[in-house]
Design a protein that fits this description.
Elements lengths: L8 E2 L4 E4 L14 H12 L3 E5 L4 H11 L1 H4 L2 E4 L4 E4 L4 E5 L7 H11 L2 E6 L2 E4 L5 H10 L2 E4 L14 E4 L2 H14 L4 E7 L2 E6 L4 H11 L7 E5 L5 H6 L2 E4 L5 H6 L2 E2 L7 H8 L1 E2 L3
Parallel strand pairs: 1-16, 2-3, 2-13, 3-4, 8-9, 13-14, 14-15
Antiparallel strand pairs: 4-5, 5-6, 7-8, 7-10, 10-12, 11-12
Helix pairs in contact: 1-10
């Protein structure tokens, strides 16, 4: 579809939802100065920014701070849609916890399928195997404290929003199929990366949370632009007024998008901000 056949959106009416890894951040997990400047102009012109990530809130907050959302205004959608936070007013607007009784079953299934299982509490990441490379990737990106928990269940006495299974992508693709059969109607199961399998309560995904919160903020979902690259971005890209895939996105994500922007290493979000909005002159 040629996006320019669609009506552009006025900045002051718009909600711009941005995935982080592979979208807002480049391959070095950095946000370029050009992207920071473009988002700053967007917010100053009246636009609303939501950082929409599978990351826990602890891992999204440093990005929100880089963008100055605490002062300028903006929101965090974390845990793949399990949590929504107003940065400027320091206010939790939505939370959906994972049913605790599921945890021992998930632990048993993780061991059966030969994958790692982890969950979070503030700045700590609890896992069956803290030497596993994809767990290491997750804690490095988010700067978590490593906590070995095998067995996992007895140490998880706090509320949780999301669990994550990690394993090489080819194996995890097969595990995903089996887990969806086992948890149909109880859990939302989706891969954010080939090696990350996200587990949240049924009905919790980026699409449901971003569309519901857009309405609660008094905005029209038709003025919602969602940008992403991974499988867990697919739902919000389909639900958006304009769904945007990065050039580096998974093929299924690109196929579902209304517009394909430049890659995350080419300031793709700057391209979105410059091309898809009407700016008051």
């Amino acid at each position: 579809m040629n996006i320019f056949e669609k009506k552009k959106i006025k900045v002051k009416d718009a909600v711009l939802a941005l995935d982080l890894d592979g979208t807002l951040t480049n391959s070095k997990k950095e946000i370029t100065e050009n992207t920071i400047d473009a988002i700053d102009r967007f917010i100053k012109a009246g636009g609303t920014v939501v950082l929409a990530s599978g990351r826990p809130t602890f891992g999204v907050t440093p990005v929100a701070n880089i963008l100055g959302l605490e002062e300028k205004g903006g929101y965090i959608l974390s845990y793949n849609g399990g949590y929504f936070f107003d940065c400027k007013n320091n206010k939790e607007l939505f939370i959906k916890e994972l049913t605790h009784e599921y945890l021992p079953v998930l632990e048993e299934q993780a061991k059966h399928f030969g994958v790692n299982l982890m969950t979070y509490n503030h700045d700590k990441a609890y896992a069956l195997d803290i030497e596993e490379p994809y767990y290491t990737m997750e804690v490095t990106i988010n700067k978590f404290i490593r906590v070995k928990a095998d067995p996992l269940t007895p140490q998880i006495t706090f509320p949780i929003i999301k669990c994550l299974m990690t394993a090489p992508g080819e194996h995890l693709a097969e595990v995903e199929k089996e887990m969806k059969k086992l948890w149909d109607g109880k859990l939302n199961i989706v891969r954010s990366e080939p090696y990350f399998l996200e587990l949240t309560e049924v009905g919790i995904d980026k699409a449901n949370t971003i569309t519901n919160m857009t309405k609660k903020l008094g905005k029209d979902v038709g003025n919602l632009i969602c940008c992403g690259d991974g499988f867990n971005d697919l739902s919000m890209i389909k639900a958006a007024g304009i769904g945007v895939a990065m050039a580096n996105a998974q093929e299924k994500v690109r196929q579902a998008a209304d517009y394909i922007t430049k890659s995350n290493d080419e300031d793709g979000i700057v391209d979105v901000i410059e091309k898809l909005f009407y700016w008051d002159r």
